[in-house]
Amino acid sequence: MMQAFLLSVVYIFIGSLLLLMDFHRAELSFLLRFRAYLQDKKHALGIFFYAGLAIGVLLLLFPVDPGPMFIGDIIPALSVLSLACYFRYAYAKSNQDMDRQFAGTKLSKRKQRLGYIFLIIAIVHFLLPSFVLL
């Protein structure tokens, strides 16, 4: 299903940029409003979360052809689902809690690495849509 493919690429790309925003604040300043909107408006965070769940399930059930049924796009599907759960957990907290949680810790390095990994997954998934990512 090409619609789920396109939505997953966009979701993973936006999610990876949100993870990398703390490290590249000057380059990604256009996402500051979006992050603040997700933190302030809980209904928008819920929509973002449930959209990620729906996209992940769609990828699992309807992979891009010629992928095998149920496991054709498992890495992008798991990426979307993990990003949805992360944002549901992390953005439900206030700004001060998030800054204190990640400031100068090993978690901030993990967050940066995950951002780059998800960015690579989004690029590979976009450039090679029929490639089975197991």
How are the SSEs ordered, and which strands pair?
Layout: H1 2-20, H2 32-40, H3 42-61, H4 74-90, H5 95-102, H6 106-127
Characterize this entry briefly.
With 134 residues, the protein is mainly α. The protein has one domain (2-127). The protein has helices spanning 2-20, 32-40, 42-61, 74-90, 95-102, 106-127.
Structural class: mainly alpha
Radius of gyration: 15 Å
Chain-averaged pLDDT: 80
Order of helices and strands: HHHHHH
Overall, the morphology is: globular
Q: Give the N-to-C terminal Cα separation.
A: 17 Å
Question: Number of helical runs?
Answer: 6
Largest sheet, in brief, is: none
Overall number of domains = 1
Low-confidence stretches: none
Annotation, overall tally of beta strands: 0
The helix fraction, in percent, is over 70%
Report the sheet-strand fraction: under 5%
Description:
The protein has 134 residues and is mostly helical. It has one domain. It contains six helices and no strands. It is globular. The relative contact order is 0.20. The model has no long low-confidence stretch (mean pLDDT 80).
Which properties best describe this structure?
about 130 residues, mainly alpha, about 0% strand
